[in-house]
Amino acid sequence: MSCPTQQEYPASAIVGRPVKPFTMDTYDPTEGSFGQVSLEKLQQDRKWTVLVFYPADFTFVCPTELADLAERHESLKELGVEVISVSTDTKFSHLAWRNSERLLENVRYQMAADPTGTVSRYFGVYDESAGTALRGTFIINPEGVLVGSEVNFYNVGRNAAELVRKMQANKHLRDHPAEVCPARWEPGARTLTPSAKSVGKVYEDLNP
Predict the structure, then answer these.
(1) 140 vs 34: CA distance, rounded Å
(2) How many C-beta atoms surround the C-beta of residue 45 within 10 A?
(3) Has residue 200 got a pLDDT over 80?
(4) What residues are labeled active site?
């Protein structure tokens, strides 16, 4: 897939379209230092990118989500995924929160800072009235195309196990582009191959 020109990027992130390159400052708990994350660099490294937006450091549902994500981090890394959590807090706040909240002691993925809300706005999760991001999860393939999008309101936490399942499905379909994955598909289960003979016969395809 050729690299799109600047004019080809949509004004906001759209599933099925290339994502406009971005760079954000980060706190890296593994290294214990500050750095940057670049979508362009992740594409060069042929990485899948998962952005996990959350409202704010030092809040209530957020540490439970990031802790849950930490439990699945190794499984995602094995799938070639770079996990990046994102909020509108600064990288300094990320450091302080990660080192004070016990729920976050196993967090090893990069924690990105979007204090101006630029990246949050692009992905459609920025709450202008609060200056924070909604709970958004976005999957970007190694070519830089957005292939997954989920947004929750502030009061509903996510399930990282489902994120792993979605990534397994996306990775399988990248290797088998003629197939599609039915609901609740997991590795080893039957997929579907769309064709004229399958119309109205999905039950038979799934239950040979």
Answers:
(1) 23
(2) 11
(3) yes
(4) 62
